[in-house]
Write a structure and sequence with these properties.
mainly beta; Porin; eight-stranded antiparallel beta barrel; elongated
């Protein structure tokens, strides 16, 4: 699956670069809340992401692209004055398809985006704090599945800052399809979930 995502991404970039019409490169970052599926008593767990973004468009309303970014995820659970916190670190590679509600001549461009997403685990830590305030933590990287696959849906608005520079804003929901853990004692299925508000700056390098 990892090799397939890499191959598709490379083919996407190479083919679109060869036909370059409207290409933009930039940076993106976001903050939000993450959790696992099928877990009760969860509370707010800060999540954040940041990285690079690439977008190609040959029409007025459609665009495709790919991001490569670091993403901190996980969950926080509070029950009976005990607190469990999981922090998961991924390299995320979403392959995006966006539809813009108006054409490129507008300075404000609302859009909808769908993106199959590959995640590569690069670290994980779990911490527990009991009612007395005693704390323990451990590295659980070996217990986490290396690959996570899911999909995200987003609504956003792009704002033109100059003829070729744009401010991008998106509200993004991510739904993981695979179990976070290699094995679970109770046999339960825990998949990543998160919602975030992302902001980016992109600069066009192709023809208008």
């Amino acid at each position: 699956m990892k090799k397939l995502f890499t191959l598709l991404t490379l083919l996407l970039v190479i083919s679109f670069t060869a036909r370059a019409q409207r290409i933009s490169l930039g940076i993106t970052g976001g903050f939000g809340h993450s959790w696992y599926s099928y877990v009760g008593d969860k509370t707010f767990h800060p999540a954040f992401n940041g990285g690079l973004t690439f977008t190609y468009s040959s029409t007025q309303h459609w665009a495709v692209g790919v991001d490569a970014k670091f993403s901190r995820e996980g969950i926080r659970v509070e029950k009976d004055d005990n607190t469990f916190t999981s922090k998961l670190d991924y390299i995320r590679i979403p392959v995006r398809a966006s539809y813009f509600l108006n054409d490129y001549t507008h300075n404000v461009r609302p859009k909808f985006t769908l993106a199959p997403t590959l995640g590569i685990s690069i670290g994980a830590n779990e911490a527990f704090e009991n009612a007395k305030g005693d704390k323990t933590s451990k590295d659980v990287s070996d217990e986490i599945n290396t690959i996570d696959v899911g999909a995200s849906a987003a609504f956003g608005v792009n704002f033109r800052l100059s003829p070729k520079m744009w401010l991008t804003t998106d509200i993004v929901y991510y739904n993981g399809f695979l179990n976070v853990y290699k094995d679970t004692e109770d046999g339960e299925y825990y998949a990543n979930r998160n919602v975030s508000f992302n902001v980016g700056i992109t600069y066009g390098i192709g023809k208008e």
